[in-house]
Design a protein that fits this description.
6-stranded antiparallel beta barrel, Alanine racemase, alanine racemase activity, elongated, 2 domains, binds pyridoxal-5'-phosphate, pyridoxal phosphate binding, alpha/beta, Lyase, Ornithine Decarboxylase, Chain A, domain 1
Length: 365
């Protein structure tokens, strides 16, 4: 028998979340962001449930090939554009739209021989200072692209650094609107946080929103808001079982480094899940976990293959009991991946993406 750990991808939740983000910007089209192998879910595993999007956005050309291989004929956008000249051949062959964020990418396009002119998303650096043309250089880049026979259509794109926080997006939106004011072309500005928090403004919605994390059921602005606040459902469950039970007395310690010491008698369960499965090693005593759908806490350090949990609230639990590390328990109880991530000082994004290859994954409706 394999180790009892398993991840489940929930199609019903993916469908619900897509409908939910679409409702936040009803007149915009939706890029389903499936970079990083659909945030660790697996592109092939989410594809059927995500067909309701208008296009798929990703980074990796191999991932684009996988989406085409699944039979998707609609738009696919390379969010970082091409990395070298021959990538443009694949764009021509597979009909990929690509971001253009620097002069080198325009040089490559100018040298590219193609029968099929490309659709590009010209990226403005409106303040994030990651990718994109500086405001004073943006219009020159637009004019250069516009003059190329290799380019059929130019869309306008930017990305917000603080859509999830107190600084907000107004300063970047002002730059984007000023620079693009009279330029033709479709516009794409917002990720999940912008779509959920700021899309009441039609200028933020633009023509395409680019939600990633919200599709996967995480609140983009946790802990200010949780997934229940945004009516998002978990799309990934990580579950395992108890391998062993230990009865401790006062003074007994648990795990490597003896970071937990029992102050009195306590039953603990040992779970078949550790950091080699993608469970964050930074989680400490107190991190929430569900045993048989009952909320309890982690105890001691996370080791490579195991972690210990407090069985005090679930005295009936024993060998083989169900443990939910995040997601949905058999009894319907939920444990947000955001809450677990927060306990490890990170984000739901990182936990999803870090699900280890050794964990078997199943798809459920
Ligand atoms: C990853 C990414 C997104 C999606 O962001 P979320 O916060 O997951 O919604 C949108 N746009 C770009 C350019 C990205 O790289």
């Amino acid at each position: 028998m394999p180790r009892p750990i398993q991840a489940t991808i929930h199609h019903e939740a993916l469908r619900h979340n897509i409908a939910r983000v679409r409702a936040s910007a009803p007149d915009a089209r939706v890029w389903g962001v499936v970079k990083a192998n659909a945030y660790g879910h697996g592109i092939e595993r989410v594809f059927d449930a995500m067909r309701a999007v208008d296009g798929f956005a990703l980074l990796d050309l191999q991932e684009a090939e996988r989406v085409r291989a699944l039979g998707w004929r609609g738009p696919i956008l390379l969010l970082e554009g091409v990395f070298e000249p021959r990538d443009l051949e694949l764009c021509s062959r597979l009909g990929l739209w690509h971001s253009v964020h620097c002069d080198e990418q325009i040089d490559m396009l100018a040298a590219h021989k193609t029968q099929v002119p490309h659709r590009v998303f010209l990226k403005l650096n409106s303040g994030m200072n990651r990718l994109g043309f500086a405001p004073q250089r943006y219009r020159a880049a637009w004019a250069r692209l516009d003059a190329l026979p290799q380019v059929e259509e130019i869309s306008l794109m930017t990305h917000f650094s603080d859509a999830d926080g107190p600084r907000g997006i107004a300063h970047q939106l002002r730059v984007f609107n000023e620079i693009t004011l009279d330029l033709p072309g479709e516009r794409s500005l917002g990720n999940s946080a912008a779509a959920l928090r700021h899309a009441a403004d039609p200028a933020v919605r633009g023509d395409w929103i680019r939600p990633g994390i919200a599709v996967y059921g995480s609140a983009p602005d946790y802990p200010e808001h949780d997934s229940a606040h945004w009516d998002l459902r978990p799309t990934m469950t990580l579950a395992s079982r108890l391998l062993a039970v230990q009865a401790l007395r006062a003074g007994d310690t648990v795990g490597y480094g003896s970071s937990f010491t029992a102050t009195g008698p306590i039953r603990i369960g040992v779970v078949a899940c550790g950091y080699a499965d993608g469970y964050p090693r930074h989680c400490t005593t107190g991190t929430p976990v569900l045993v048989e759908g009952v909320r309890t806490q982690l105890i001691g350090r996370v080791s490579m293959d195991m972690v210990a949990v407090d069985l005090t609230p679930v005295p009936q639990a024993g060998f083989g009991s169900e443990v939910t590390l995040w997601g949905r328990a058999g009894n319907g109880a939920l444990l947000s991946i955001d809450e677990v991530a927060h306990s490890a000082g990170t984000l739901g994004y990182e936990l999803m993406c870090a699900l280890a290859p050794r964990v078997p994954v199943v798809v459920a409706d």
